[in-house]
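Long-time lurker, first post. I've been practising inverse folding by hand and with some scripts of my own, and I keep getting stuck on stretches where the structure tokens seem ambiguous. Below is the full token string for one chain I'm working on. Before anyone asks, I'm not after the true native sequence, just a reasonable design that respects the backbone. If someone could post their per-position residues I'd love to compare against what I wrote down in my notebook.
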């Protein structure tokens, strides 16, 4: 779903002439390392907990050193919620199995199905989400904060932009 949110944010950025037109003014430190945590999460390793700790450690480091970039505080908070859920799920994001089955979804390597409701699911993937182009997902409250942060980032111009103005 993150790709869907990124595409929508990108389109809104183009329509409203926001971040995309002023991306060169954004000072994101170590931007080239941002794909690394996500690549690590898809590696098939025996010790998922250790892999997730490594992945989120890199992500948190990148978010902290870029703390002042618009939207990154939301992304940090959402990522922290997801990290807690994943650690409580043994290295995989907990998903409510009956809801996933009802939506016709199958879990990926990053997910673990819980057949009965458990308190961990309150921060796991239990929120149904649908796109206008007929894709469906289960997302977590942490994902919601990450997506808000991404939209805020994409729709905010740099303070130094000579073209900064309200909608």
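-- Answer (accepted) --
I ran through it position by position. Result:
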């Amino acid at each position: 779903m993150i790709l869907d949110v990124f595409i929508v944010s990108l389109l809104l950025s183009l329509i409203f002439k926001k971040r995309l037109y002023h991306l060169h003014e954004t000072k994101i430190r170590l931007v080239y390392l941002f794909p690394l945590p996500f690549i690590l999460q898809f590696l098939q390793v025996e010790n998922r907990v250790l892999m997730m700790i490594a992945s989120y450690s890199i992500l948190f480091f990148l978010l902290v050193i870029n703390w002042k970039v618009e939207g990154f505080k939301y992304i940090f908070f959402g990522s922290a919620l997801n990290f807690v859920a994943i650690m409580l799920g043994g290295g995989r994001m907990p998903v409510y199995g009956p809801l996933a089955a009802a939506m016709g979804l199958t879990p990926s390597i990053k997910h673990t199905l819980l057949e009965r409701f458990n308190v961990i699911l309150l921060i796991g993937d239990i929120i149904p989400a649908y796109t206008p182009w007929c894709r469906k997902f289960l997302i977590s409250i942490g994902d919601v904060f990450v997506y808000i942060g991404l939209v805020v980032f994409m729709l905010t111009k740099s303070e130094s932009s000579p073209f900064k103005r309200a909608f």
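A couple of notes from the structure itself: The chain is about 45% helix and 10% strand. Residues 2-154 form one domain. Happy to go over any region you disagree with.
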